[in-house]
Predict the 3D structure of the following.
Amino acid sequence: MVYNLTSHDLGLPDNRTSLKALLLKEAGVQDLDEDGLRDDWEVLYLQELALTSGSNDDPDGDGYNNFTEYAFGSNPRVATSIPQSFAWASRDENGDTWRGLVMKRRAGATVEYDCLRSQDLATWLSADSRVEWVKLERIFDGTGTFLAYAASVIEPGSEKRDFLRVEAKRK
């Protein structure tokens, strides 16, 4: 595979997307049944060589489907292993107060995460420039996940509250 960076400026989103797709293809990410779950994960966690479970199945009956367990690093065959790695965090930096969440998420580019914010828990909007992924920390526990920190800046003197939630989608 050859991808000429001289003729493909990575400052352009389409070129970054094309390069990412080529690298993923070469890295061997396989999803032969096209259910949004990596085949190696299905074989390891669902113990299925035939890849018969789908992303919406819930083999352990814990209320979380296979895709959710895949995206947030829990075991789909163990009911007590649920996506519960969300925690609140705060920090002060350069006069700004940041409040946010810490979560376990899948490493690599097979899942897209969108951080949404709300001030009333009724209307959820895609996070704007006031919310960002501020830190990533690799976890070496064999799950292929890392800790991600999403934070929202709180403006001085603001009485408003920001609520954050994360949605995972298939790429």
Observations:
- The chain has three domains: 1-30, 36-81, 87-170.
- The chain has a mean pLDDT of 79.
- The longest strand covers residues 96-106.
- The helical segments are 13-27, 39-46, 66-71.
